[in-house]
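Thread title: Can someone regenerate the structure for this chain?

I was given the following input by a collaborator and told the matching structure tokens would be attached. They weren't. Posting the sequence so someone can regenerate them.
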Amino acid sequence: MVFTTELLMLINHHRPVTLSWISTDLSFESTFETSGTLYQKDRFRFDLLLSQPDGLNSGDEEEGNSTVETARHMLWVEISPARVIMSLQGNGKFCYRHFWEPGIYGLSRYWLNDDGGDIANAFRLRNYTRRLQLEGETLPEYLRIEYELWSDKVQLGNYVLNLEVYH
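Best answer:
Regenerated them for you:
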């Protein structure tokens, strides 16, 4: 059984991906297209690694200055029918980690790194996942997460995350 799991982890699929966030009650919408690598951990669990798409300014570099090193980020999405975890990591200063599971309050953690890469500031919000929908025959093709974002007892909005993996 261990051999089978290790063998499945070696199987990866490079695919185009579209990721969008939409607020249903605030004026917020963000969509980007990039390439991703889908790793199959077992029959129903996958890791999807997305790189920052070309031309997306992370706020860490100045436009038109070729001497400034471009900050690259890696978006890592752990996908299963029951749970999704998404992390933004990289050599930029802003990072986050979201945990979504239907019917529960998950954590959304955000932090800023200082110039040395250590955590300078951090805070947590809660998210209540109303719906998690995953579609695809053998590999994930479409993921939709509908959730509320909360700070203590104050709701910060309703959001929808859509992820499409093109096969």
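The chain has one domain: 2-51+72-165.
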